[in-house]
Amino acid sequence: MQILSKTSALLLMLAMAGAMAPRLAAASCNEPGTPNQEQLRSDGHGQLIYSFENTARATPHERSDETGKITIFFDMNLADANDPANHNWTYVEGDGPHVLGNHERVTFVVSTEQTQRVNPANRRSERVDRPLQLGKKYCMTVWSRTSPGGCRSGDHSSWQCATVRP
Predict the structure, then answer these.
(1) Residue 92: which residues within 8 A CB-CB, separation 6 or more?
(2) What range does the domain containing 110 cover?
(3) CA-CA distance, 138 to 113, in Å (whole number)?
(4) How far is it, in rounded angstroms, from Cα 126 to Cα 35?
(5) 20 and 89 assigned to the same domain
(6) Number of compact structural domains in the chain
(7) pLDDT 10s digits, 111-142
(8) Where are the alpha helices (DSSP H) in 1-147?
């Protein structure tokens, strides 16, 4: 009977440790907020304009200065609206540094498929640098990071889509 209670206690401790693991991992990484209020639109010159609000907030030791702004980086994905979901292309990773306040807007002009991804068929990296195609619908999403290779927001923003106009 005592062996059963020790075994039960051990199983309970393991279960509790497993349940706490995500919280402990998150505690060691101060995830920035997911950008929101994103917009993607064509500017009529064969380019897309992608903008969003920063939602990362600075703790007192992360502030760039007295204004409460934070140094932040962004990862963005670009996808052809007709491609399957697993064909997202990394448009840019670790773009920055940007010194931004909470809800401060940032804008990117996108004129090329300056992209890289891993081909799921052969697991090789592919790189493309070509102009956006007129009449083609592209979609974008973004994450924020605390440094180029640092903690990344837990979720990406919503996908926004627009068609490139001449």
Answers:
(1) 74, 75, 76, 114
(2) 31-163
(3) 10
(4) 27
(5) no
(6) 2
(7) 877 666 656 666 666 666 778 899 999 999 99
(8) 2-27
Global confidence as pTM: 0.71
What single DSSP character describes residue 63? B
Tokens representing 14?
A: 């393991």
Q: How far is CA 49 from CA 70, 135, 160, in A?
A: 23, 15, 11
**Which residue carries 């592209």 as its tokens?**
138
CB burial of residue 85 (10 Å; 0-12, 13-18, 19+):
exposed
DSSP alpha helices (H): ranges in the chain? 2-27
Interatomic CA distance for residues 29 and 26, integer angstroms: 5
The strand pair at 105-110 and 48-53 is best described as antiparallel
Give the tens place of pLDDT for each residue, 79-92. Answer: 888 876 666 677 78
